[in-house]
Automatic annotation (TrEMBL), chain A:
This is NitT/TauT family transport system permease protein. GO terms for biological process: transmembrane transport. Residues 66-246 form the ABC transmembrane type-1 domain. The chain crosses the membrane at residues 12-33, 39-57, 69-89, 101-125, 132-151, 185-207, 228-249. The lineage of its organism: Bacteria, Pseudomonadati, Pseudomonadota, Gammaproteobacteria, Pseudomonadales. Coiled coil: none annotated. The keyword Membrane applies.
UniProtKB/TrEMBL annotation, chain B:
GO terms for biological process: thiamine biosynthetic process. This is NitT/TauT family transport system substrate-binding protein. Residues 43-257 form the SsuA/THI5-like domain. Keywords: Signal. It comes from Marinobacter oulmenensis. The keyword Signal applies. Residues 1-26 form the signal peptide. Pfam families: NMT1. The lineage of its organism: Bacteria, Pseudomonadati, Pseudomonadota, Gammaproteobacteria, Pseudomonadales. The keyword Signal applies.
Amino acid sequence: MSPKLPDGKAGQLVLMSAPWLFFIALIVLWELVCRIFELPAYVLPAPSAITAAFFEVEMSRWFTHLWATLRVALMGFAVSIAIALPIAIAMMRSELLNRTLYPLLVVIQSTPVVAVAPLIIVLMGSDDPSRVLITCLLTFFPLVVSTATGINETPPELIELSRSLDAPTRRETWQIRIPYAIPHIFSGLRVAITLAIIGAVVAEFVAAEEGLGYFIQFSTSFFRIPQAFAGLFFLAVVSLLLFKSVQWAQQLFFPWSLPKKKR
Amino acid sequence: MRKGFTRSVLIAASLAGGLMTQAALAADQVTYQLDWLPGGDKSPVYVGVQQGFFEDEGLEVSIASGRGSTDAITKIATGQADIGSADIGSLMAAKAQDDSLPVKAVYSIFNQAPHAFFTLEKNGISELTDIEGKEVATSPFTSSNAFLPLVLKENGMAEDAVNLTKADPGALGPMLMNGGTDAIIAWVTNIALFESQADATGNKLVVLPWSDAGLELYSSSVVASEAFLSERPDVAKRFMRAFDKALKFTSENPRAAAEDLHSMVPEVDVDVVTAQIDDTMELVINAVSERDGLGALTRERVALTWDWVAQAEKVEKDKLDPESIIDRTLLEAL
């Protein structure tokens, strides 16, 4: 039996507000648990304490930290796209490259970045380039895989048709394969953008003077748990917004690549 | 190398442009590496910047935060920083492993061990020997862990006389207050922070410093890269002079020092940092500094420190001549 969806305008409203109501209920429950059991702030701070801690920090400081994290995450994201798409295309075109590169990519992906990050900092210094590299190590693999999958899933009839018309490989790639890969590329991008934030935070945990990850670490070093939670929530919101932005970009530039009801 | 490049580009640019003032040209750049995040115990270098002690010596000092002593030593060794703070025991242990490490200790900040047991009055641990058979929590990577068996042995207990569990440093205080453990191992520089947690739960904190239990050694020290000491000896001397001044200023004016730190790191709370400085200064200005002088690295105490470190790290004592990691030229030039 398929789940029963509410119908009509009222039903739509319920559907729209359900996630928010659920979220608010969770927060209220959390606040209640903290108050009823009198949990100290350093065990689990109540949402009210976290909100208060958030506003205790000056807005300009929040933006300094936000910008530091965002800058690294976006740079890493951009560099990943610049590397991953050509690699995926090259791997699709050449079986030799595919066989040589793929194992290496898997090795890079299976190496825990947290373990490699300190080594990268020692090798490359504690400036932006090493932080961007750490971010890239996390983000580019899902992009390569999703792009390569998309390119390979192009209907063979279309490829045959284009070959029978003697279309050059360049046109086959750009006009048939890439457009078919767009939905896959975007699902890769959505994964990658959240990983970019994680990458930036990992880098900040190893070496940084500012950034939201640094701020959280710094707050815990002073046992200011509510403040650390505030940083964590801010980070989650930013991550969510970036995730949404990728969706919006897809809706704006490639509406045809979305299922009909999501356009 | 990269830093040298940046510096030469800067100099070239200023020469070509002729725009920079004489003073800016004359200021020597120094990068100071902390071994942890900014806090009360790290405030002297911030004081040096804010009170103009470095500027008076013609220095422009930038400060980088670190993630532990080995991190700081590595960054200084690889030239990412010129000078910084690190545990002298970590430097000794590292040097015993790899003789070529180009880092030297030049000035002692803590002349006492900062490690201590923290417990609550109700747990019935009022002196060190009461710890036998108790649950003790510590953080996984603190240098304290290596000294624990020695401290227990020194006080007539077996090396495994306590039940040790490891937890994130941020979780230790809560564990103690909740009754999740009988005692924790932490640094005396954080007494005020734990005290506020104890107050909040209606408890009374008891601190048992290991320095009272026979652990006599140098701890946090100023360490510098050999390249910095040999290539820019004059800059190094001026730096040390200003740092020494800043350390004295910090001990005499803890609140002003806390405000200096706050103005460079707005996230820190002036009250908390002032309390941290008060706690920290016990390790800096005490009977030892009275006898040997501030910052001193005496032969006897350096040897004593290596005795403890070698035992703690389970290294042969003759693996390292502790004098080989010391450079006293900056101390002598004070």
